[in-house]
């Protein structure tokens, strides 16, 4: 078993070398969307955006970059335990890890909500969900539900989710308006969306600008889409944490001239 795991890591490492990725793919040029992402989407989709409200949308992180999510120094760089302590998680909650990747946060969330709680782990790459399943099995967790989402819909139950956590993923949404509407519909009464994004305001955060967001930009995008900022946590070394609640329908969008 150990040999197979080491062999898998070696193969992924070769993949990084072939694609030009270093140990921190988000600090490099993003990899093009893999075919699996398109397969996860509905057949009929509105055109994907390359820009939204003045911000260039980043491409989705390829599943071959998944080892960066579980890198040894992530806790030291991002203080992930501090983030988890300040999300307001209680046993028995239903939480969504939206853009769960290989399950780095999913497993920790599942432990926090306990046996009576539930974690809905959403990703648009089936390869990521397979990696997540392996982690959940190894941790002997049975309260995780993997969900293959689409580019416009995380496919969550309506009005049932207490907390939707998006860690460094919102800036990659190719259809932000549709996704924000679907997220809002999934929130339970009093439920929150927690956005965690690398701080664009801080030039010392060693992440490529395309993968950063400012507080001003986040509010510029979420508030017209039916969200209200209700809380912030500013004590992580690299990231903003902003909590939003849904307050109604999005503002009407103006037709775009072709």
Write a structural description.
The chain has 8 helices and 10 strands. The longest helix has 18 residues, at 2-19. The protein has helices at residues 2-19, 35-40, 74-78, 80-85, 104-113, 126-138, 176-186, 215-222; strands at 51-52, 55-56, 94-98, 118-123, 144-148, 161-167, 187-199, 212-213, 227-233, 239-246. The chain has a single domain (2-246), classed as Rossmann fold, CATH 3.40.50.
User: Helix fraction?
Assistant: 25-40%
Q: What is the name of the CATH class?
A: Alpha Beta
Strand content: 15-25%
Q: Average pLDDT, to the nearest integer? A: 83
The total of beta strands comes to 10
Give the CA-CA distance, first to last residue.
56 Å
Task: Kindly identify the CATH topology.
Answer: Rossmann fold
What is the radius of gyration? 18 Å
CATH H-level superfamily: Vaccinia Virus protein VP39
What can be said about the biggest beta sheet? 8 strands, mixed
Write the H/E string, N to C: HHEEHHEHEHEEHEEHEE
Count of helix runs: 8
**Number of domain units:** 1
**Secondary-structure content class:** alpha/beta
Uncertain runs with pLDDT below 50, 5 residues or more?
1-42
CATH-derived architecture? 3-Layer(aba) Sandwich
Q: Which descriptor suits the 3D outline?
A: globular
Task: Provide a brief overview of the structure.
The protein is α/β, with parallel strands linked by helices. The protein has eight helices and ten strands.
Q: What are the defining features of this structure?
A:
258 residues; alpha/beta; Rossmann fold; eight-stranded mixed sheet; two-stranded antiparallel sheet; 8 helices; 30% helix; disordered N terminus
